Amino acid sequence: VCVIDIRSARIVRRFGGSGVGRHTNRVTDMSFSPDGRWLATSCIDGGIRVFDIPSGRMIDWLEFSSSPVSLAFSPKGDFLITAHNGNVGLFMWANKTYAGNVYLGGVPENPAELDVEEVEARPFLNIAENEGGE
Question: Which residues is 81 bridged to in the sheet?
Answer without folding.
Answer: 72, 92
